[in-house]
Amino acid sequence: MAAAGDQEQVVSLPGKVCLVTGASSGIGAGTALVFARLGARLALNGRNEENLKETARRCEEFCDQKPLLVPGDLTDETVLRGMVEQTVAHFGQLDVLVNSGGILIMEGIEETTLQDYDRAMNVNVRSLLLLTQLAVPHLIKTKGNIVNVSSVAGLRSFPGAVVYCMSKAAVDQLTRCAALDLASKQVRVNAVCPGVIITEIHRRAGLDEAQYTQFLQDSQRTHPLGRPGTVEEVARTIAFLASDAASFITGVTMPIDGGLHATCPR
């Protein structure tokens, strides 16, 4: 038996080349930091270049190799192709793709426009599909894996967010179908489905400070564990799924929601 303090580190990513989208804020930025602490080599994407540079600066405290920045809009196919090409050219391989970039549109069926639908699907689904397709040849070589950031809104239905819920349900199906398609090639595909996590996404979707404060208070009631979650809690789960500790896990859509997915409809 190993002595205390000598135990194997269950979750680690030493030397793994990990491409993380949405890394300029929220879950993507938090995931980049956790990956850096676990020894990963990072390629980081985000739209806000200043925030992306700040994420990279924080990661550098833990990284032996400076993160590669591949900024740009996920709806731009040229950006997506360049993202994968630059990562492989820089590091020589790709081991993990984390699809964390996404948007929240908080509108019900009566208010939602086709422009809202197109925007949600283009950012939350279409970009994931193409980026996955671009990454797969490289992931096959390394027997790597993909972790998609979905939502409890893909597992459960909520009022006032119709196209967001639709897009995240599509992400869940993409995850499962891709997992089956790639299993014979030893490429794993999984997703995390967060509940309410404390980030800026709800403010960006239109909530003012009073509404957001009330929303977080309501989360204490709607989440059985009695609180919203943190970015760190989601990022640690993503790291687990991306690591060899999850080597026999593929096709899962894992809730990180304080039990929200298990509750009865409101």
From TrEMBL:
It comes from Eleutherodactylus coqui (Puerto Rican coqui). GO terms for molecular function: oxidoreductase activity. Keywords: Oxidoreductase. InterPro entries: NAD(P)-bd_dom_sf (IPR036291), Sc_DH/Rdtase_CS (IPR020904), SDR_fam (IPR002347). Pfam families: adh_short_C2. This is Uncharacterized protein. It comes from the Eukaryota. PANTHER family: EG:BACR7A4.14 PROTEIN-RELATED, ZGC:101858.
